[in-house]
Amino acid sequence: ALTFTTAAYAQDYPNRQITMVVPFSAGGPTDTVARLVAEKMSADLGQQIVVENVGGAGGTLGAGQVAKAEADGYTVLLHHIGMATSATLYRNLAYDTLNAFEYVGLVTEVPMVVTARKDFEPTDFAGFMDYVKAHGDELTLANAGIGAASHLCGMLLMQALETPLVTVPYKGTGPAMTDLLGGQTDIMCDQTTNTTQQIKGGTIKAYAVTSPERLKLFPDLPTAKESGLETLEFGIWHGIYTPKGTPAAINERLSKSLQVALADEGVIKAMADLGTAPSSAEDATPAALKAKLEAEIARWKPVIEAAGVYAD
Ligand code: MLT
Asked: Per UniProt, which keywords does this protein have (predicted)?
């Protein structure tokens, strides 16, 4: 009887509005990705997906809210690599990352850029590294809290340069960008989905990218790796999750709709303009996201343990 009920329920899905929790501030990089896909998924599902920004504690607050939500397919989470790093960074996480969610699929993978306020002295990445090493204790590094992508990148940068900076946490790099533009903070590692416009407009400076190859968008920017920072090579992968117990048929339905959104010409173009690309249809599946999360928890655990940074 239970199987029948679940199947019947899934068949009727969705019959009302869906909430997509973004665990960072509105106007930031995760929010940008969420709004791009939510609009097209809404059209495919025939129901509105409303984005709700629940910023704080490096993305763990929003993820925690979804972990506790009804497993009925009407609350979903769009989160990034922080889902994996927070599992090690937080010793007292309110949820058990690998057992609190079901999976819908991967969305995109976004490169990061090492940026600084526009009047920051160094003119290239070699100069940037020397300057940071010489002036570390006077420089501020903005991030979106422990567990954010900007935190991971900043942590690896400080480790590679053997220079601790004064870190300033925000609820997202949206508000952090406002302070970088205003010159209230000096340096930030952030995703191209939040920095491209400002770099092109010359309102912030960019020094290096974390992708394996240089970006088409900024061919003059070196990769961190080619500049000698071997550890600074990674992309910020995003995925969509539902609370544990959400029926498989619903996760599959959401995955199909995600695949439709990611194949949309407008989405492909908007992502390309922001230095990224949609995940493939194969990757926009529950199995691919589950495998990615497991692999990424294993990848970052020893790195974080070696750095010795934790949040309580
Ligand atoms: C955001 O949307 O604010 C970000 O993804 C923050 C981050 O993780 O650095």
From this structure: Signal
pLDDT at 274 over 80: yes
Which pLDDT score, from 0 to 100, does residue 1 have? 39
44 closest CA partner among 271, 278, 262: 262
- Please tell me what DSSP assigns to residue 247: -
Query: Quick one: average pLDDT of 51-57?
Result: 97
Question: Residue 306: pLDDT above 80?
Answer: yes
Is the C-beta atom of 148 inside 6 A of ligand 1? yes
DSSP 26-79: TTSHHHHHHHHHHHHHHHHHTS-EEEEE---GGGHHHHHHHHTS-SSSSEEEEE
- CB within 8 Å of 157: residues ≥ 6 apart: 114, 141, 189, 229, 232
Chain mean pLDDT for the chain? 96
User: How many Å lie between the centroid of ligand 1 and the Cα of residue 50?
Assistant: 19
Whether ligand 1 lies within 6 angstroms of the CB of 86 is answered as: no
DSSP 8-class letter at 240: E
* Band of pLDDT at residue 6, cut at 50, 70 and 90: low
Q: pTM (2 decimals)? A: 0.96
Query: What's the gap in Å between 12 CA and the centre of ligand 1?
Result: 34
